[in-house]
């Protein structure tokens, strides 16, 4: 099984740290699961969705979308800008063929400057997953600036506990889904 962690921003480091922390919990507790971080900061030339076939987009776009399609399940992170997910993350969702993530498990985390932005997961990310008919892990994690130290490492033990719980939920749900489809 392969878990993709998608950090949906072209700037900043808190979101990829959060996503990678979930991946590391999975890697440490379930070494049989392959994990990969897609940090969109490494794919700055991803193109806007305009209806072309995937093979007509540039290499960055094709690479991200192909990795997403090939994965078995996901943890998706976004910083919250203007009370919403990032445009680049929305663009990735727009580029994905609906059937490519149908019946796959997703978990979410968001980062932001205030505690009020946690509702973006409920009001925007979960409905997107519903459109794709994906299964959503019941827990999600919202990380505020207070959860990080000066070097952008997660210092808050309760936040780390929630990230580990999300990792375990993702693995449990994916394992059960895989077992039931045999």
UniProtKB/TrEMBL annotation:
<dbReference type="InterPro" id="IPR005025">
    <property type="entry name" value="FMN_Rdtase-like_dom"/>
</dbReference>
<dbReference type="InterPro" id="IPR029039">
    <property type="entry name" value="Flavoprotein-like_sf"/>
</dbReference>
<keyword id="KW-0560">Oxidoreductase</keyword>
<dbReference type="GO" id="GO:0016491">
    <property type="term" value="F:oxidoreductase activity"/>
</dbReference>
<dbReference type="InterPro" id="IPR051814">
    <property type="entry name" value="NAD(P)H-dep_FMN_reductase"/>
</dbReference>
<keyword id="KW-0288">FMN</keyword>
<dbReference type="Pfam" id="PF03358">
    <property type="entry name" value="FMN_red"/>
</dbReference>
<keyword id="KW-0285">Flavoprotein</keyword>
<feature type="domain" description="NADPH-dependent FMN reductase-like">
    <location>
        <begin position="1"/>
        <end position="146"/>
    </location>
</feature>
<protein>
    <submittedName>
        <fullName>NADH-dependent FMN reductase</fullName>
    </submittedName>
</protein>
